[in-house]
Amino acid sequence: MHAGGTLPPAFFFLYTKGIPTYQHPMKQRPYTHYLFSIILIVLGIGWLLDNLDIWNFWPILGDWWPVFIILAGALSVANNPKNPTGPAIVMLIGLGLLLQTVDAISFNVFTVFWPMLIIVIGLLILVRRNKTIEGTDSDMVRSFVVFSGTEKRIISKQFKGGEVTAIFGGAKIDLRECRMAQNATISVFTAFGGVDIIVPKTCKIATQGTPLFGGFEDKTSPDEGATETLLLKGTALFGGVEIKN
Fold this sequence. Notes:
Blueprint: H1 9-17, H2 30-51, H3 57-64, H4 66-79, H5 85-101, H6 110-127, E1 140-146, E2 149-167, E3 170-191, E4 194-198, E5 203-212, E6 215-218, E7 228-237, E8 240-244
Parallel strand pairs: 1-2, 2-3, 3-4, 3-7, 4-8, 5-7, 6-8
Helix pairs in contact: 4-5, 5-6
C-alpha cells in the first residue's frame, strides 16, 4: 500500500504540471471532459480507500492500469473520428499490456506483439506516407511520424487543413504563408511526442483538444483585424501541441 501522502507517478505528473485545461473551446464535446473527470474521481476514491485500509486499491490498479491507455485511445477516436490511426496504435499497445498484466495468456505477448506492431507501423508509413512536399502549394497537409521527426512549410491561398500524427516523434508545420479557407481544420494526435504549428498573425486559433497528461498551448497573438480562423482538434497523450506565430 502507498503510505498516506505518497504520490504515484501519474498523480505526481498532475501535481507538478497541473491538470490539463481546454483553451479556446469551440463546440467541445462534453463527454470527453466528463470521462476524463470520472477517471480522476475513480483514481482519487481508490487512493483514499486504500489509505484508509478499506480497499486494497493499488494491487488492483497494478493489474488493470492499461485500461486507461485503451480508454485514452478510444476517447481520441470519439473526439476525432477522422484521424483514428494514431489512437488505434495506442489502443493496441494498451491491449497488449492488459493481456500481459492480467495473465490472460500463457506466453509473453510482447514476443510477438512488438514485432507485429513495428510491421503495422511500417505498412502505415508506406501507405500513408507524407504527401505534402516542403514549400508546395497544397491545400491540405498530412503528416504521420513514428520514432522520427518532420518539418513542413505549406504555401496555399485556400488552406483547408489536414491530419498530423506524431507518436514518439515530432512534427513542425509552418503555415505562415497560408490563407485559411472557411472551416479550415487540422486534426492532431500526439502520444509521447510533440507537434508545433506556426500560423500567420492574420489567423485566429480555436482548439477542440483533449489533453490527457499533455496539453494544447496557444501562444499566438493575432492582429486585431484578423478574420481567418484555424480549428485544431485532437488529442495530446503524454505529449504537447503548441501553436505560435
